[in-house]
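user: can you give me the structure for this one chain? tokens are fine.
assistant: on it. calling the predictor now.
[tool input]
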Amino acid sequence: MNFQVTVSLTPYDLAVLVFIYLHCIQGASIPWEVFEELIGPTIESSSFDPLINRDSVYNGLTQPLIPDLEVIIERLSKIEGMDSILMDYISCITSINTLETFYNMLKALNVLCLVKTSKEITERKKFNPSANIVYFTERSFLGKYVVNSLMKVEIGGFEDKNLLLHCFKKFVYEFKQANIYMAFKPSIRDISTSLISWGLISNEYKEDEKMIDIFSNFTKTLERSEPPDLTITTNHLENILDWYLYNLINGTVTFKDDPSYNFVQSIIDNITLHNKSLFPRIHIIQYLKFLETNSYEDAFRSLHNYFDYVLSQNTDAYFHISSLCLAAFYVHFHDADLAIKSFDEATKVARENRDSITLNLIIVRIIKFIESYPEHSAQFNVKVEQITRFLKSSSDSIDASIFENAYRFDSVTLFRRQDDLISMFEAIYKYTVLSMEQLKSERGLNNLMQFKANFWNELGFSSLGNIYDGFSKPSVAVEELNQMYQSLESDNLDIVKRYLKTTNFKLLNYNERMSTKMLQVRYLRIIGEYDLALTIIEECSKQCVSVCSDYRMKTNFEIEKCLLFLDADLGSRCLHLATNLLEYNQLIQNGPGVVRCVFILFRILKRNGKIEEAHQLLEQNMVNIMQYPKFREQVLSYYKERNLIAIST
């Protein structure tokens, strides 16, 4: 799409002026919501810039309309009471062939409707009470738009008018090819005579029209390139880019199904270097798009180009923010060493500038990094406990998301260590409340729902976990891993083998890596590779504790070790370990862990011929077992087996 950014009138402006004219002078009762939808995107952007200012929030003007008449009509048709108005509107705008008509509309709005003060509105209504005119002041919502349009007409040169006419004709022509136009077509009428009676067609601008025609014919042979098919104002494009960037960052589900998405894609594909310098957000958009496709060099170049521009604005915060963004870039590509260097650089500069707000943001990013890659926590100059303590003791006046992330990480740490259930539940509750109070995006909600789903699933309450799962969408890596576990349960071992063979463990975070190792252990158990499985269990058990004191994961691997010995018909060798695990899980009140240990001891006792002791152990723990739906079927199968043996004897 060939487009041009302009300060003059655009076809979109002309489309809006028709609505204002019909409402204010011709008595069309147009809902105010229509003008909010139309004029909102042309107001100066709030500069949504998540890389530079974490507090910058998208202005929420609903989704900005793009300069496409089909999209405009489709959006406005959803507003109640607009059907008959849209028929008149389409009849009007498709009957206009010259700029003269629009200029006369503006002139009429200026003379008949635009006033300086509210007092003047009262005076005009008293002077002519029967006039069906809507008045507005220069400072009003409509007044500012009309005044701004009048100024654009004044400063617009001959070439601007020529380009405007060309783009407007294209604007209407493309609309006439759309399905929505075909739906309205039977009710559309030619209102050229009405335009004359309204005084919108005169000879005042005929000279301009004639000169445009003469100039166009004269320059046809001289033109080396086609004129742009679309013109758009800076404010309008910035609002559309803000909306696109907001949805791209927050992962809005229906984002890519919207025509505005395709519009921005066309803009990005055809933007000139000059326009890129005017709209640096495009560098951010390209950076995020390259991250999606894991294009390392292209993403790095876009990030560099963006900060090359913003650092020239001489703002102190930009340098350490650029270092922080560079760290996030390296984290995405799993380059932990370079990420840590960038984190250190960002922290150092933020402290030198005494920028406490950005320093808090950097620390939040560091704890998120440590949560995903705890094996690198020792490379930072401060301990994890010091970081969370610092964040939780921050001033109440700072952003609540600082406390939210502090309590989230605190709950993760306590969950892994399993040493204080009450403190863990308190931290999770505080994290949940703070997160729900300031939800700004689908991604934020998704992160919270995933966290809660994982938490309840680990505690054995899968029914609660499933509720939260219904509101969340896991990452590609986690979704693929879940499918592999399902394949393992369904005995589709070839699929699991292929997955394990092609998985690059260096590209996985801690949780993903440990879950994949657990999958590998279970796969090796099934195919009888007990020695290799035992080696992996020993390595992971040590790593869990040394890296992040993750005793919960260590317990899971040790339970897997017991199951391995049972599969190898060496249950007596894990009796001591299973007994210790049972006592440990009872001590820390890990219900699912207790049940799994009970089942292991039950199988060991059975194989040693101690049937009564085995069932006595089940009965002693029956209350605990029946709490968890996923274990009920298993315990019932043990009792059915016992009854069948009793019947046969």
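assistant: here you go. The longest strand covers residues 3-6. The two ends are 84 Å apart (CA to CA).
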